Amino acid sequence: MNPSEISAPGSHLVADWQALMRTFIHPENDATRKILVKYMEQILFGLHTFLADHVGITEEVSLKKLAQRFTDTRINDQPEKKLADVITDLIENIAPHAVNVASPYFVGHMTAAIPFFMVHLKTIAAALNQNTVKLETSKVVSIIEKQVLAKIHRLIFNRRSSFYDHHVQHVETTLGSFVEDGTLANITALWVARNRLLGPRPGFAGVENDGLPAAFAAWGVKRCVVLVSRLGHYSLKKAGGLLGIGNRNVIPVDVDEHNRIDLSALQRKMDELGKSTAGTRILGVVGIAGTTETGSIDALPALATICRDRQIHFHVDAAWGGPTLMSERYRRLLDGIGLADSVSIDGHKQLYMPMSCGMVFFKDPLAMDVVAYHAGYINRPGSVDLGIKSLSGSREANSLILDSALKIMGLKGYALLIDHGIETARQFAREIKRRPLFELVTAPELNILTYRINPETDAPHKSAPSVHRRRSALERLNSINTTVQRLQRERGKSFVSRTTLYPSTAQGTGMVVLRCVIMNPLTTIGILKSILDEQTTIYRNAFSASES
Ligand SMILES: Cc1ncc(COP(=O)(O)O)c(C=O)c1O
Predict the structure, then answer these.
(1) What is the DSSP string of 48-93?
(2) Alpha-carbon distance 410 to 297, whole Å?
(3) Which range among 266-280, 378-392, 393-407, 408-422 shows the weakest confidence by mean pLDDT?
(4) Do residues 464 and 34 make contact, with C-beta atoms less than 8 angstroms apart?
């Protein structure tokens, strides 16, 4: 087979050794190289303009119709397309149907625009293809990982310089670990907490070795629980399932009027658990620094004191709110985080890294010893192999991306992003309060707020004397908000998400609210006003007409 035949336009593609070699060494010809460079340039430098030109939030094709286009379940024997054609296809045919999370009108989730340089850094990480599970496939990258983990550890725990000098490159201690995401970070924290609680004792090698039934027998335990506010992320439930304590034993505690864990309810729950069920042990208490739905922050110092007094592992889920520590103006919101035993932070959230990067940190550099694993061919005792104490096995060099981003942005750069989000959210809250059609449901503590459409005519849901009338008024409001959110999403110009909260005024019936997460620096108050205008129009078209 002649190589030119392979690359000739419209030619029949064949998988052979020569073609394969080209994919490992360089593009097949000059034309292909030019196309690849052109697209790389677009992706690297023009991502925002490119996405703005090609995509609103997403194109108006239903998921059902899209699904019909993707029903081919066979892998072709021979190659179907050249790389350049595949890239063209991805950019022109797939990207428009993905979601343009970079749009400043996309304010519904914790995923948004990233600085363009992140794409460069991600490309370099992919090109180097280091595997940080072990030194033999990462060398300096493992060292950089230890350094960058120490930087974030210092941001959280702020221990003495001598502590960091000692541990930053210590072979046997670990300040934290990179994992895939916030879910695995939370699971890792509770994994460590479980193993420390049910550690070895005479005749018992520890829960990690001997399993839960043996651990319960050895420690005289019947049940292990984790306590967290009912706004806790569902990853904690997964941890309950995976760690064998049962996800029903991840117990939700009521929140106060600010959506923070209700401290007296927590104390009551602890006392009740202590009294009613002999043999119940509290494996951990989780404080949240930025709840997923409302962005609220639990009273971390008070939680730390409760946990210290009762000798309970105190974990802070700061997957969302952690980077607020970088803002001089707002870091006080996270006061007490340094008293935690462990802390989760996500890189792909407010550190603006590409998907995905989770991290978990431990105050005690020896805490992760209880989850150490060794293998004959790697991760030998005493080595710097980072896979020894990581839930993940093979993983990419996210530390390269984070370390470089920290250099490019500095604390001040990140602070600008954090401050913009919080302050724009506050402005938005004031705007919502000004408009009679809307009701602010949860004010922003960080950069997340919830609100709903609540036309004055529907006020009876609060004041109506009968529970039945109040409930049916609330259900009607729920249906209005659900419909408006859906219709706005389907229009494809802007996106606000929706969730259900259970405030005490709703008496057990869920209240549907619109949820806004402001993290994109290009999202302005003007854009947010236009999102409210659009919701007003959608509401009037869908409901007002039918009512008059
Ligand atoms: C507070 C909190 N914790 C944990 C997570 C889980 O993060 P991930 O989706 O990266 O697994 C989230 C995600 O939204 C979160 O908001």
Answers:
(1) HHHHHHH-SSS-S--HHHHHHH-------SS--S-HHHHHHHIIII
(2) 25
(3) 378-392
(4) no
Distances (CA, A) of 119 to 99, 112, 113, 522: 17, 14, 11, 18
Entry pTM: 0.94
Answer yes or no: is the C-beta of 317 below 6 A from any ligand 1 atom. Answer: yes
Instruction: Give Cα 450 to chain centroid, integer Å.
Output: 18
Residue 171 lies in a domain: no
Statement to judge: residues 359 and 468 lie in one domain: no
Is any ligand 1 atom within 6 A of the Cβ of residue 181?
A: yes
Residue 295 Cβ inside 6 Å of ligand 1? The answer reads: no
- CA contacts within 13 A on the Cβ side of 179: 25
Distance in angstroms (rounded) separating the CA atoms of residues 406 and 411: 7
The tokens for 226 are 């984790």
Contact (CB, 8 A) for 334 and 290: no
Amino acid letter, 83: L
The secondary structure of residue 376, as a DSSP letter, is S
Structural domains counted in the chain: 3
Alpha helices by DSSP H, listed for 168-211, are 182-197, 207-210
Residue 22 predicted with pLDDT over 80: no
Domain enclosing residue 73, as ranges: 3-100
Q: At what angle do helices 140-157 and 398-434 cross, to 10 degrees?
A: 40
* Residues 312 and 426 reside in one and the same domain: no
Say yes or no to pLDDT of 203 above 60: yes
pLDDT score, position 92: 79
Rounded Cα gap, residues 79 and 75, in angstroms? 9
Q: Is 233 in the pocket of ligand 1 (CB under 6 A)?
A: yes
Phi, psi of 451 (to 5 degrees): -155, 175
Domain check: are 189 and 307 in the same one?
A: yes
Nearest-atom number in ligand 1 for the CA of 232 is 1
Residues 441 and 541 occupy one common structural domain:
yes
Q: Which atom of ligand 1 is found nearest the CA of 348?
A: 10
Q: What share of the chain is helix, strand, coil (3-state, %, to 5)?
A: 50, 15, 35
Angle among Cα 164, 167, 169 to the nearest 5 degrees reads 110
CA 182–ligand 1 middle distance (angstroms)? 5
C-alpha closest to that of 371 among 539, 199, 523: 199
pLDDT of residue 381: 78
Here the tokens at position 24 are 């490992």
**Which CA distances in Å does 449 have to 19, 227, 261, 413, 485?**
54, 25, 17, 24, 15
Task: Look at the alpha carbons of 106, 117, 96, 77 in this order and tell me if their dihedral is positive or negative.
Answer: negative
Q: Is residue 113 part of a domain?
A: no
